[in-house]
Write a structure and sequence with these properties.
Order of helices and strands: EHHEHEHHHEHEE
InterPro entries: His_Pase_superF_clade-1, His_PPase_superfam, PG/BPGM_mutase_AS, PGM_Phosphatase
Oligomer: single chain
EC number: 3.1.3.-
Largest sheet: 6 strands, mixed
GO molecular function, one term: hydrolase activity
Shape: globular
Number of strands: 6
Radius of gyration: 16 Å
Helix content: 25-40%
Number of helices: 7
Protein name: Histidine phosphatase family protein
Structural class: alpha/beta
Strand content: 15-25%
Keywords: Hydrolase
Distance between the termini: 32 Å
């Protein structure tokens, strides 16, 4: 995709889902299908009002409940149907799923440390971050390719999946993806289309800084 002369190019808004009880407990969700808390629903409604002002042209979301429910709040305001895709699910993390951060560090300390160093690690025997990007990034690009000139796509997904997708679309080496800080619940990042590809325009936007809770912190 190339930027049109005189235009700003297409935009991709990658929006993390609202709060869940497992986020509060710092319990790794991964592909486990956890619903939003009441606070998470309120976060989604607040953020949806802000994102609706961007006049998005399309919405695509993970099919897990926490992302689908978040996307639904924006769909109500925009009138757009949400396209759900399982390729946008959070990283499958095998034996890590359901464990708290402290439990992961205690049981899988070496594995956790290697992941934080940027090494390719199958956390809990699950997916590599590059494999998550392999499935998620093409879906994002497929929907972005359908946008009108200067159009905006909202992608509703998960912290780890958004991080890997941004890293892939920016052309960063996977060992550097950790340099992209995590997203707070219901915050988002914006990629803008430039002459040399996608550029990171905003990261973890949407509110005053809040703690990053839960997956991929």
């Amino acid at each position: 995709m190339s930027t049109t002369k005189g235009g700003t190019g297409r935009r991709i808004v990658l929006w993390r889902h609202g709060q869940t009880s497992w986020n509060l407990e710092r319990r790794f969700q991964g592909s486990t299908d956890i619903e939003l808390t009441e606070t998470g629903v309120a976060q989604a409604r607040r953020s949806a009002r802000l994102l609706a002002a961007l006049k998005p042209d399309a919405i695509v979301a993970s099919d897990l409940k926490r992302a689908a429910a978040t996307a639904a709040e924006l769909a109500v305001l925009t009138g757009h149907a949400v396209a759900h895709d399982s390729a946008l699910r959070e990283t499958y993390a095998g034996e890590w799923q359901g464990l708290t951060h402290d439990e992961i560090v205690a049981r899988y300390g070496e594995q956790y440390a290697a992941w934080k160093r940027g090494e390719p690690v199958r956390r809990g025997g699950g997916e590599l971050e590059t494999e998550v990007a392999d499935r998620a990034a093409p879906v994002v690009l497929e929907h972005a390719d359908k946008l009108p000139e200067d159009g905006t796509l909202v992608v509703v997904s998960h912290g780890g999946t958004i991080r890997t997708t941004i890293g892939r679309l920016l052309g960063l080496e996977s060992q550097h993806w950790e340099s992209l800080g995590g997203l707070s619940n219901c915050c988002w990042s914006v990629l803008g289309e430039g002459a040399r590809g996608w550029r990171l325009m905003e990261h973890n936007a949407g509110t005053l800084p809040e703690p990053v809770l839960g997956d991929d912190d």
